[in-house]
Amino acid sequence: MIGRLNHVAIAVPDLAAATALYRDRLGARVSEPAPQPEHGVTTVFVELPNTKIELLEPLGADSPVAKFLERNPDGGIHHLCFEVDDIAAASKQLEAAGTRILGSGQPRPGAHGKPVLFLHPKDFLGTLIELEQA
Q: FRET pair for 58, CA 20 to 30 Å: which of 10, 19, 78, 106?
């Protein structure tokens, strides 16, 4: 069902500092910050030859990432994102197997404008999983 690793998301308390760390210390190519109000975050993507790293900073206290940072004030890995060829079929298959899909259970546009779903971390060894339509 899953395809390639699209990105690893890291929640950060200071997006500008995190961006500078990847750009200036590691020499990585980074995107401009992009607010994602529907997800409660601002994102920066670090481009790598084989995948991306998504840096997440909360947009307000209601953001799920703000709650993550309350428990992990220095930041840390927030989720893994895998591509799927057919997100609707993947959703049906996962639900039939008892997997909990977060939110409404319906795909919604993600940071790349493609449909995404988030799977409950308790169903995946404590790891939040994002699925993105390839």
A: 106
Strand (E) or helix (H) holding 114: none
- From the centroid of its chain, how far is CA 4? 14
The DSSP output letter for 102 is: P
pLDDT digits (tens, 9 = 90+) for 99-128: 999 999 999 999 989 999 999 999 999 999
Catalytic (active-site) positions? 130
Beta bridge partners of 4: none
Nearest Cα to Cα of residue 79 among 113, 31, 111: 111
Q: What does the angle CA 33 – CA 115 – CA 54 come to, to the nearest 5 degrees?
A: 30
Cβ neighbours for 63, distance < 8 A, ≥ 6 positions apart = 40, 41
Q: 71: helix, coil or strand?
A: helix
Compute how many other C-beta atoms are within 10 angstroms of the C-beta atom of residue 47: 12
Pairing of the two strands 128-133 and 76-84:
parallel
pLDDT in tens, 14-46: 999 999 999 999 999 999 999 999 899 999 999
